[in-house]
Amino acid sequence: EPLMRIVSVTSVLGGVAAFALASPTAGAQGTQPFSVQVSALAAHVTLSPSDGFGATFSELGGEAQIRYAPSKHWSLGAGFQFTTGTNQGQTLAMSGVFLEPRVTLGVGTPRITPYLAARLAFMRGTDTFEGESINLNGQTLGGGAGALIPISKRIQLDVSALFAKNRIGSGGFSSMGYVVRSGLSVGFGGR
Questions:
Q1: 153 vs 24, 98, 157, CA distance in Å?
Q2: C-alpha to C-alpha distances, 75 to 27, 93, 143, 178, nearest whole angstrom
Q3: Less CB within 10 Å around the terminal CB: N or C of the chain?
């Protein structure tokens, strides 16, 4: 069941976070201006067609992004994401590109750096039920919060939650939902 998979993923991510908190670190914010990040996503999406009959999906997926941090306090990421989920024979699969600016809050500890993030994504996908598919295209606008937890000087664990509203231009659909994310970021370059 998709909900149990999300609970299992969340449990594993909590264990990774506990390990990272117990690990020796060099500081909560990386000093490299560039980073590459790969993350697992667990999403909960309510798809609402214009006729009023919708469905809720527990989705799993992933993302990859490259980030540029001109300072220790803010950064901009660009990347690709995908998710897929089913509900009583109906399948929703979405993918797209995104931009994600972040600003750190300056209230962390040497082991945790909290941040706020926004996300603008351009998505494509399909909603399939009983062998028939509807193509979906649209934009996602959302925001949320997260934390960077250093594992070493160049590697950080990133955990976050984002809330989003999707405006889908084809198919007469809209959706709202949230995404829980956990991934590793590897920094490179020097200032």
A1: 10, 27, 12
A2: 17, 29, 15, 22
A3: N
